[in-house]
Amino acid sequence: MSQLSVKNLHVTFPLRDGELKAVKDVSFNLEKGEALGIVGESGSGKSVCVSSLLGLLPVPPAVIKGVAEFEGQDLYSCEALQLREIRGKRISMIFQDPMTSLNPHMRVIDQIAEPLRIHEGLSKKQARARAVKAMESVGIPDAAARAKSWPHEFSGGMRQRVMIAMAMISEPEILIADEPTTALDVTVQRQILNLIRDLQKKTGMSLILISHDLAVVASICDRIAVMRNGVMVEQGSSKEVLSNPQHAYTRGLLMCNPALHQPGCRLTTLEEMMEGEEAP
Ligand SMILES: Nc1ncnc2c1ncn2[C@@H]1O[C@H](COP(=O)(O)OP(=O)(O)O)[C@@H](O)[C@H]1O
Ligand SMILES: [Mg+2]
Questions:
Q1: Above 70 in pLDDT, residue 279?
Q2: What are the sequence ranges of the domains in the chain?
Q3: Cα(95) to centroid(ligand 2), Å
Q4: What topology is assigned to 4-274 in CATH?
């Protein structure tokens, strides 16, 4: 049994004149300890897909069909309370923009400590001590001294480290990172990706890393799934997908990615590549 198994997932948003099918018949598995990358351009349904798993989409308006089993338990049919337990403790998620996910009016240390107080019932003192350790483990220098700071006193990269500390403090079985480095500049991006990779290796947790950038997911994921227009058009081991892409869209992503050392992007745009190809 896979740790997480998503089968025939459809997510549809009703519109005033019709509907928007954001996710269409998506199926994938995640094995324990594995790193799965989901890649695709903006609007292809990556965030809607994973947000639906954790009950983070308002239902309605979103209409969700399909099955998503976490350790054999269907996430779409479990009670709200149970789902909140899973979301806070067993599956953690981090997002692109730490500033919108952090509470500007709460000291960093207390935000990191909050899940421990809620889910593990630790005292304020105990939780704060663990929070400082968590800050150290994500590479925040002078953690003890900086713990009392406010989010706006941290740089973008440091704020993302705070988010990662929050996500990791409950020792999740799965970390879902949705474009965690998109808002950061390139060198900081690399540091954060390395941090995520190291934490994954150290803890043995599974990882779903979402990005519009194939090079980003290829650099740390064992497997890659490619999404386009709500459809998962291709999935396979990173090696397979990079060396022998099956779908024209994947070939386009590869060609347009200088970091993957593929020639041809300047001459052929992705749009031209897709011309004559059947849309999924
Ligand atoms: N709450 C919502 N209501 C209506 N449409 C939405 C909502 N959230 C996302 N969408 C639409 O669903 C599609 C997929 O969005 P999303 O999953 O955010 O894309 P990605 O993460 O790949 O950039 C987009 O067309 C987006 O506009
Ligand atoms: Mg997104």
A1: no
A2: 4-274
A3: 9
A4: Rossmann fold (3.40.50)
Are 92 and 171 contacting, i.e. CB atoms less than 8 angstroms apart? Answer: no
Q: What is the rounded average pLDDT of the residues 70-80?
A: 93
pLDDT at site 280: 52
Exposed e or buried b for every residue in 17-49, given b needs 16+ CB within 10 A?
A: eeeebbbbebebbbeeebbbbbbbeeebbbbbb
| Per-residue confidence (pLDDT) for residue 269, from 0 to 100 | 43
Please list every protein residue whose CB sits less than 6 Å from any atom of ligand 1.
13, 20, 22, 40, 42-48
Residue minimizing CA distance to atom 14 of ligand 1: 45
Question: What is the residue with the minimal CA distance to atom 26 of ligand 1?
Answer: 43
Nearest protein Cα to ligand 1, atom 9:
48
Q: Whose CA is nearest to atom 19 of ligand 1?
A: 43
Calculate how far, in angstroms, residue 150's C-alpha sits from the geometric centre of ligand 1: 31
Q: What is the pLDDT of residues 116-164, one digit of tens each?
A: 888 888 999 999 999 999 999 999 999 999 999 999 999 999 999 999 9
Write the residue with the smallest CA distance to atom 2 of ligand 1.
Answer: 13
22 Cα–ligand 1 center, Å: 6
Q: Residue 211 Cα, ligand 2 centroid: separation in angstroms?
A: 8
* Contacts of 214-219 spanning 24+ positions with Cβ under 8 A: 214/39, 214/253, 214/254, 214/257, 214/260, 215/257, 215/259, 215/260, 216/37, 216/39, 216/181, 216/189, 217/37, 217/38, 217/39, 218/37, 218/242, 218/260, 219/193
Compute, in angstroms, the gap from residue 37 CA to the centroid of ligand 2. 13
What pLDDT is stored for residue 277 in this prediction?
A: 52
pLDDT class of 99 with cuts at 50, 70, 90: confident
Gap between the Cα atoms of 29 and 27, Å rounded: 7
Stretch 152-179: mean pLDDT, rounded?
95
